[in-house]
Structures are given as C-alpha cells and as structure tokens.
Amino acid sequence: IPDDARFVNSEFARRNKDYDAWVMFYEYDWKFEKMWQQPKRQASWLMNFQGAIAPQFSVYLDLPMALQIYSIYKNRWCAAYWESLGIPVIPCVYSGGERTYDFCFDGLPRNSVISMGSMGNHKDKEAEQCWRKCFDEMLKRLDPSLVLLYGARWDNLPDVPIRYITPSRGELKDIYKESMGVEQ
User: Is 147 strand, coil or helix?
Assistant: First the structure.
C-alpha cells in the first residue's frame, strides 16, 4: 500500500468517480449490499479503482450467531470473488464479540495488511472493550504487517504499525447531511 494511498467510502467513490482511490465499505450495509447481491455488475464498477477493502457486513453483538456467520461469509466471498477478477483487496477484520472468534478470523492472511473499523466504538465502555479485545485477538492470530484503522484515533494500543484512514472532506459533508436527514 503506497504511503499516499487514499481511501473513500463506496457511495462517495461511486458519485465522484475518484479512480485514484481505494474503495472501502465502512458505512451502512444497505449502501453496499448490492456488492453481494449483484456481484458481476458491481465488480465491473469496482475494477476502475486502485483496489478495495473487503466489505464489513454487520455482526452486531446481539445479532443471532447464524446471521453473524452469514455476514462474515459474505465478506470473505466478496473479497475472494474480487481477487479472482484481479482487484487488489485488503482484508477487513471485525467481530460480534468473543463468541465469534471461532470464525471471524477464518480465511484471513497472516503477516499481511489488515483493515479494521472503529467508528462508534468510543461511545460506550462495552463497545470499546469489545473492540479492544478483538484488536488484541487479531494481533495474536494474524500478526499483521500493517493495520489500516478507519475511525477515531485510539490511545494505548499495542505497538504495531497502524495507519489511520479517515473520511475525506467531501465524505464528511455527506455524513453530516445524512445525519440531518438531507436528501443527496
């Protein structure tokens, strides 16, 4: 990953055709569910970009385990399909708490670049503890060469190479408008 690589969420990338960027999917599932539902059509759009971070389908703590497994499966399937088409893909790590550790790291490479999102996990103690445990478990199991961390900066993380990726100025405007209920 070049030091000057830029990352943009899929909705922003789609509207602005920012082909020099990597596409990421740290947004509401409904905004990128089509990547799973229409894989050929959506992959043809994605091929124009530098690459993609595998989509992070929701695995909420209170989601039934079967749906958590299904979300992880969709993530791995999309990543494998895109890679089979020659699209560079950065794996995305996420969990639905400790009960998902038996499967949420399956199929992810060791000693590789890994991405992880942390938006919203600073909001309460339980979410923060869950995220930190997953981060520590990811380090133990995958020993990444670099962690691309989407979201706010964290204090007291283990000493591993981390590169923070944040929404662009245009994306922040879109996020603000969405939070205010403004049509785009």
Answer: strand
